[in-house]
Write a structure and sequence with these properties.
By secondary structure, the protein is an alpha+beta fold. The protein has 2 domains: 41 residues, Winged helix-like DNA-binding domain superfamily/Winged helix DNA-binding domain (Arc Repressor Mutant, subunit A), CATH 1.10.10; 75 residues, Alpha-Beta Plaits (2-Layer Sandwich). 36% of the residues lie in helices and 20% in strands. A 4-stranded antiparallel sheet has the order 2-3-1-4. The chain is elongated and about 55 Å long. The mean pLDDT is 97.
C-alpha cells in the first residue's frame, strides 16, 4: 500500500500525540471520524504503525546516565553473532543494540543510575557477553536533540 498525503498527516500526528482521540485526530487531518478510524486501522494492519507506547523520562525514573558502548567481537561466525544478540537482549539496562558496519560490530545504548551503576552493569552483564574482544564506553554529557518521530 502506498501512503497518500492524508496517511502521512495521520502518522505525523500520531507520532507526536499517540493518545489523541480519534475525534481529535480526524479534526487535525480534516477527515470524518469514521474515515480516519478506517485509515488508522489500515495503517496498523499494514504494519506502518507497529505499536503504541508511553515514553518515560529516564531522569525521573532514576536513570540519568546514558552510555553508548561499542563492541567488537572476536569473530563474525553466525553462531557467535546469534549467541551475542541473544545474550545482550536479556540485559534490562540495554535500550538499543545495533549491528554496525564500521569499526565496531555493535553499538549499545544503555541507561544507568550513575557511573557506579554502569560499573555494575559492565561487571555483571557486559563482561560476560559471548565473543567480546573489545569494548569502548562513551558517556553522554548532554542530550542535544532527541526524537522518536521518523520523517513521513
Amino acid at each position: 500500500m502506498a501512503l497518500d498525503p492524508t496517511d502521512r498527516r495521520i502518522l505525523s500526528v500520531l507520532q507526536r500525540k499517540g493518545r489523541i482521540s480519534n475525534a481529535d485526530l480526524s479534526e487535525e487531518v480534516n477527515l470524518s471520524a469514521s474515515a480516519c478510524h478506517r485509515r488508522v486501522q489500515r495503517l496498523e494492519e499494514d504494519g506502518y504503525i507497529s505499536s503504541y507506547v508511553a515514553l518515560l523520562d529516564r531522569r525521573k525514573m532514576g536513570l540519568p546516565t546514558l552510555v553508548f558502548v561499542e563492541i567488537t567481537l572476536s569473530g563474525q561466525a553466525d553462531d557467535l553473532l546469534d549467541a551475542f544478540e541473544k545474550a545482550v537482549s536479556r540485559i534490562p539496562d540495554v535500550l538499543e543494540c545495533h549491528l554496525m558496519a564500521g569499526t565496531a560490530d555493535y553499538i549499545l545504548k544503555i541507561v544507568a543510575e550513575d557511573t557506579e551503576d554502569f560499573a555494575r552493569i559492565h561487571r555483571q552483564h557486559l563482561s560476560r557477553l559471548p565473543g567480546v574482544a573489545q569494548m569502548q564506553s562513551s558517556f553522554a554529557l548532554r542530550t542535544v536533540f532527541k526524537t522518536t518521530a521518523i520523517p513521513v
